[in-house]
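$ ./design --mode recover --in tokens.txt
reading tokens...
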């Protein structure tokens, strides 16, 4: 017998070959791949940004060596039960304080100069340090990585949906909505860090008045006005922050200071 293609087909028909369907979890992974890629991209970008920030801070900072501020941070250290709290001077002029991704606390040279000229008191400067300690203690530096990754994935999803109905405008609308979400998350972090700072200032015997008085002069110090609506800002307004501090004091059954 001569074996031909026809004979082989007869012996093993094509319709007898079982075709294994794609499993549901593979299909699910394929559908989710744009979002997973967006999250992965955001994580990589955040880690790259953190690495660049660390290099910048290492190159342009020195440890703070101010006896009066050191005494105040020693009060904080005693209140939280640690040997010492190190603060660094970041050699740039804008007035700001920051908590680095690696947990270090910084105040800028511009902010420190305002303290040296008497525009900011030592206790007000201590409230800034307490606020940045709050960001570290509450895990905000790590949380920002999650927030950044999540909002990036949401932006991709919204852009895909909106672009089906609003070609050309979908991406713009998605970017605007996720920017509002990011601002809201940032304001929540600021409120939490303010509350931590208030509690620490009270426990250290400094009270919350320096924290509130600094907020009242902060716009003038930073040169940033209140032109944007509160819901578009990354930080709460001065009035809202002071109100939240006083509400916390009432909730903690402590009389607000005059």
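writing sequence...
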């Amino acid at each position: 017998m001569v074996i031909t293609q026809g004979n082989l087909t007869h012996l093993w028909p094509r319709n007898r070959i079982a075709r294994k369907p794609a499993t549901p979890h593979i299909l699910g992974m394929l559908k989710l791949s744009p979002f997973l890629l967006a999250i992965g991209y955001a994580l990589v970008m955040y880690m790259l940004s953190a690495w660049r920030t660390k290099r910048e801070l290492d190159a342009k900072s020195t440890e703070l060596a101010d006896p009066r501020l050191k005494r105040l941070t020693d009060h904080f250290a005693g209140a939280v039960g640690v040997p010492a709290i190190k603060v660094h001077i970041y050699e740039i002029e804008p007035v700001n304080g920051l908590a680095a991704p690696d947990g270090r606390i910084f105040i800028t040279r511009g902010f420190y100069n305002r303290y040296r000229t008497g525009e900011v008191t030592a206790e007000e400067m201590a409230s800034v340090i307490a606020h940045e300690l709050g960001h570290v203690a509450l895990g905000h530096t790590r949380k920002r990585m999650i927030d950044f990754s999540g909002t990036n994935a949401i932006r991709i999803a919204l852009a895909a949906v909106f672009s089906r109905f609003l070609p050309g405008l979908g991406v713009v609308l998605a970017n605007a909505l996720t920017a509002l979400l990011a601002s809201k998350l940032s304001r929540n972090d600021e409120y939490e860090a303010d509350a931590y700072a208030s509690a620490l200032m009270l426990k250290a015997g400094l009270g919350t008045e320096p924290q509130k008085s600094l907020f009242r002069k902060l716009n003038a110090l930073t040169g940033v006005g209140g032109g944007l609506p509160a819901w578009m800002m990354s930080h709460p307004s001065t009035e809202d922050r002071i109100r939240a501090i006083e509400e916390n004091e009432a909730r903690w059954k402590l009389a607000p200071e005059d």
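exit 0
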